[in-house]
């Protein structure tokens, strides 16, 4: 029964039973329309939310892509071949003596301060310095480049 037929029933002065059944149908129809409206609104809202979340995911993908590119950029490092200035009057002999572990035995294998600080593992191997001492010397060369002086506690350049 349509709304127009309900209106015609009301105009004809229907019986109580017809009126109650017509009223219940109108109420039911209104509830169904409200339900459809709410469902439609909910669907539209979720569609909007989905489009926002998809855009957010795309932004995250772009952000992730940028982070990956940034991580792959070359990083500024201390050049291992930089020869630092001598601090506190240190010499090759005093440097090797102060770092310990028997490294002072190899003083005669280095001709100068520059020769010591331009050394790499292979060059030290050619000079027949044992592996443990090679690693120790290279570690201390890097520490000295960063500001620590062997034999002097916590002397970092900041």
UniProtKB/TrEMBL annotation:
Pfam families documented for this protein: SAM_Ribosomal_mS41 (PF09597)
Q: What is its main location?
A: mitochondrion
Entry superkingdom? Eukaryota
Name the UniProt key words of this record, in alphabetical order. Answer: Mitochondrion
Q: Which residues form a coiled coil?
A: none
Q: Where is the Small ribosomal subunit protein mS41 SAM domain?
A: 92-147
Similarity annotation: Belongs to the mitochondrion-specific ribosomal protein mS41 family.
The molecule here is called Small ribosomal subunit protein mS41
């Amino acid at each position: 029964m349509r709304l127009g037929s309900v209106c015609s029933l009301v105009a004809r002065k229907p019986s109580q039973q017809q009126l109650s059944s017509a009223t219940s149908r109108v109420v039911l129809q209104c509830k169904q329309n409200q339900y459809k409206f709410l469902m439609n609104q909910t669907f539209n809202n979720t569609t909007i939310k989905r489009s926002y979340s998809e855009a957010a995911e795309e932004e995250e993908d772009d952000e992730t892509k940028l982070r990956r590119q940034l991580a792959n950029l070359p990083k500024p490092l201390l050049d291992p071949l930089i020869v630092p200035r001598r601090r506190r009057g240190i010499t090759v002999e005093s440097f090797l003596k102060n770092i310990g572990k028997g490294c002072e035995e190899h003083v005669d294998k280095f001709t100068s301060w520059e020769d010591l600080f331009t050394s790499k593992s292979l060059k030290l191997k050619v000079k027949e310095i044992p592996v443990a001492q090679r690693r120790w010397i290279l570690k201390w060369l890097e520490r000295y480049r960063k500001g620590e002086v062997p034999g002097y506690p916590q002397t970092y350049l900041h």
